[in-house]
Write a structure and sequence with these properties.
This protein is α+β, with helices and mostly antiparallel strands. It has 2 domains: 97 residues, SH3 type barrels; 91 residues, Alpha-Beta Plaits. The chain has 9 helices and 8 strands. The longest helix is centred in the first third of the chain and has 22 residues. The radius of gyration is 30 Å and the shape is elongated. It starts with a helix and ends with a helix. InterPro entries: LSM_dom_sf, MscS_beta-dom_sf, MscS_channel_2nd, YbdG.
Length: 254
């Protein structure tokens, strides 16, 4: 009889615990998640986080037992269950804010058909560009020494317009004052694609404030896009209605 009563008590306790776990599931999971976030220093009030799945991109304004509140840049408030920040991925920009710069990683696509070796006339023209004049002089000297015993042009080393353009962009950025030169900085050529050859700028801006950072990034690429034709290169872009209308006009003239 006593054993039966004991079993009944255990059954009742089990049922009660199950009900409590269901009712307070979010609170319990949130409590455990809060300990994890705090112990691992994953999140603090004031951090800028981005969680696209939850529609959050802004500053953490409150870390509660069951929820985390994020004020987005459009001033709306997104509430995220605390446990989701330990079970799913999110981006915390605190590392960027504490570092010496904010990354700029963007490229332009160069039309492959516009790439060629530099002619003597182009070399003389590019020597007049202050940012690359020393580079051109040095390269021409080295190439002449290397090619001294080569008579066939296809065996000779030669300068290209795309390589010269990359060096110009690198020197322009070095002199601009925008770049934190103590961090990673490179102007590189990526794998060619059906949209041309990407020339990528990978750098860190000294300024991290969002609005000024975006303005700096725009100024840099305004200049890069505008200077491309100087090196007899073309940027790649998909044909637009304007292109097709011009093509139609040419055909009509013929």
């Amino acid at each position: 009889m006593q054993i039966k009563n004991f079993i009944d008590i255990l059954t009742g306790l089990g049922a009660m615990i199950t009900i409590l776990l269901i009712v307070y599931k979010d609170m319990i999971m949130g409590f455990v998640a809060g300990i994890q976030l705090s112990a691992n220093k994953m999140l603090f009030v004031g951090d800028w986080i981005a969680s696209p799945k939850d529609g959050a991109d802004g500053t953490v304004i409150d870390i509660g037992l069951t929820t985390v509140k994020v004020q987005n840049w459009d001033r709306t408030i997104t509430t995220i269950p605390t446990y989701k920040l330990t079970s799913e991925s999110f981006t915390n920009w605190r590392g960027m804010e504490l570092s010496g710069g904010r990354r700029i990683k963007r490229h332009v696509n160069v039309d492959i058909e516009s790439i060629h070796f530099l002619s003597e006339q182009e070399i003389e023209t590019f020597k007049k560009i202050r940012l690359i004049s020393d580079y051109i002089e040095e390269k021409v000297k080295i190439i002449r020494e290397v090619n001294a015993n080569e008579t066939e042009h296809f065996n000779q080393r030669r300068l290209t317009n795309i390589g010269t353009f990359r060096k110009y962009v690198e020197n322009y950025l070095r002199e601009s004052g925008f770049v934190n030169l103590d961090m990673m900085f490179v102007v590189r050529q990526l794998q060619p694609t059906e949209k041309g050859i990407p020339i990528e700028v990978y750098m860190f801006s000294k300024v991290k404030e969002f609005a000024i950072y975006e303005q700096i990034q725009a100024d840099i690429f305004d200049h890069i896009l505008a200077i491309v034709p100087t090196f007899n290169l073309r940027l790649f872009q998909e044909p637009s209605g304007h292109n097709f209308s011009k093509y139609g006009e040419v055909r009509e003239e013929k």
